[in-house]
Design goal:
The structure holds two protein chains of two kinds.
Chain A (H helix, E strand, L loop, with lengths): L4 H32 L6 H19 L2 H27 L4 H23 L15 E4 L2 E4 H23 L1 H11 L1 H6 L4 H23 L9 H16 L4 H21 L4 H15 L10
Helix pairs in contact in A: 1-5, 1-6, 1-8, 1-9, 1-10, 2-3, 2-4, 2-8, 2-9, 3-8, 5-6, 6-8, 9-10, 9-11, 10-11
Chain B lengths: L1 E10 L2 E11 L4 E5 L6 H8 L7 E6 L2 E2 L5 H6 L2 E4 L11 H6 L11 H7 L1 H5 L10 H14 L4 E5 L7 H16 L3 E5 L3 H7 L2 E6 L2 E6 L1 H6 L1 H8 L2
Parallel strand pairs in B: 3-8, 3-9, 6-7, 7-8
Antiparallel strand pairs in B: 1-2, 1-4, 4-5, 9-10
The chains are: A mainly alpha, B alpha/beta.
Chain lengths: 290, 230
Amino acid sequence: MLTDGGFWIVQILNSLQLSMLLFLLSVGLTVIFGLLNFVNLAHGSLYMLGAMIGYSIATATGSVWLSFFGAPVAVMIIGAVLYKLLIERMRTAGPMNQVLVTFGLIFVLMDIARYIWGTDQLGVTGNIPFYGTIEVFGQFYPSYRLFIIAVGLITYAVLYVLLERTRLGSEVRAGVDDGETASCMGINVEATFFGVFLLGCALAGLAGAIALPAFSATPDMGVGILVPTLVVVVVGGLGSLKGAIVGSLLIGTTLTFGTALIPNFAGIIMYALLVAVLLLKPEGLYPVRA
Amino acid sequence: MLQVNAINTYYGPSHVLFDVSLEVEAGGVVALIGRNGAGKTTTLKSIMGLVPAARGDIVYKGASIRDRRPHEIARTGIAYLPETRGIFPSLSVTENLNLVAGRRPGPWTLERIFEMFPLLKERRATGGTLLSGGEQQMLAIARSLLMNPDLLILDEPTEGLAPIIVHEIRDRLRELKTAGMTILLVEQNFHLVTTLADRIYVLGKGQIRWSGSAEEIRADEAVQREWLGV
């Protein structure tokens, strides 16, 4: 197996694809952590809602493409409601209360999803874009999974330009560095944070919608992805875009190759990596605050 | 231009400012001095809305700003330079400046800033925290000016800096005063304060203990001994 070049190519592509889904999720979470100092454990539930809403849009309209646009918008609206009802009030409530409330929210959203969509595995069939396989270095690989990789990379590029090359991006970075001083520069830090939060929600919804055709959707899918997403955020460093992409690649690769090579240890290898980073660089690989 | 009327400010349960009042007139330079922990920084933070005053009023250009949020207060034309200098480490020199450039119309442009601080132009692509302490303070002052403020509030602009930088900052502040800028200054450097300020307030244990001109405080050794420890 290990001398088979095809095995490595497929596993590398699988790593990349998982990494990009993790990136779409963790980038929103990390910026919310970094900017708002807010621990939103329900971020994974937004991923689940993205998949579920994507399913409804795709089956109702017959267009999977439409679900890639509709689901993020719908999840963003759900995020806005959550922000106004809960998160805004919990801003100064301290991390323990935030963890408890958003942990409870996971179960509330999961039960709402069960009520609406049932507990069966949901999947879309037909009209899936990039259906079929494509030859990559002599290996046949599902084209759709390459599409997921492309969406992740394009999102990273767009966010990089937005954050590093625009004034809005400077305002976000200033707010992460030092919100108090940023407000004294005339920046409405609260409004900036709200916008960033909505963008994070939309990306979580997008991740769910593009994951749906490749996997299947269940109401508890948000719980399974939450832990690796949190690990990415901690390993990469709170609030860091670079940390989110590097952390995602690290965790995605570790999980994929761990499962393929040493299945007995796959469950702990990610935590071993987490512990190693926490011991050597407790502030994460790319900390935003010095 | 700015009237602080008997404000009381708290940090959680602890009462920090007791009926603090002061006035800054347009074109004037006012200094607030006192020992560490006297409440100088808290007074400035109350004016900026960072630590809102619980009682009393803060009137700027005829309107109360006590209950307004910091970014709204900044947009009315008050530039606040915190003791920590507030240079954003993730931003380059130019990005730090562009954050405020063009927000309010006025005489200060990026070109004019680079003329006044040629060193910043040389180092414009450098990350904010890779600058020396003096360079950071120059950048902080430059950024405040670029906000085209009507009132400039400075918290200990010379603290921890080499004498040569202190001289440069003093010269810049004199130029600004001559140009008619209104300044409210917290500063430990007694010599700088008494050569620059038109009016001086002495703060001790959260209350205004004395106010007067530079000549008066130079002559009043009792005040210096009791509240400044000069």
